[in-house]
Amino acid sequence: MSLEVILIPSLVMFTYLFLILYYIGVKRGRRQKEKNKKLFLNTVLAALKIKRLSNLKDAKDLFNEVYEKPYNEETSYTLADNLNSLNAKLKTDHEIDEPTFQNYTTIINKILNEIESVNPYSELPEYESSILQNINTFFDNKCYDAVKNEVTNLASLMVKNQLIINKHVKTNKWSVPLAIIGIIFTIFFGTLALILSL
Known about the structure:
6 helices; about 0% strand
């Protein structure tokens, strides 16, 4: 038996095993993230019902309990995103009466405002966040030429990001069909190698 006859099926099997394990790992990570988010939303709702949640400190404590990692500037985006999701969920929840809904959304919006005041533009990438903070600072100091420069920087960054997004959309458009074709060819040639080896 030649080395190719043994090597090709082994590579095919190794590739399949790697792809399956990778897929399982990615899926498990997504499931865990969704599970944590659902648990956090339920925990926040329970805390709102018993009046345990009223400010950012309480929200941080709940975040630390659920996510088992310390709340910091990097995780402030996750907290803000979860609270925004809860706001959206409350709007579609018909089991909550209007006064309770108003109370809950007021508390959540207050916490979101606290996050925004501590970490302005925390939901944005660092560079965009710094540009917007500079704009605020320059505007408050009445440095309007500097504001114009920062707005120009932000506009060019937005154009660049849009071009990157368009490029990724075009790339992703073809990646799945090409991957499927690659798998089909791998199966075909792996099978062909097995048949020819017999």
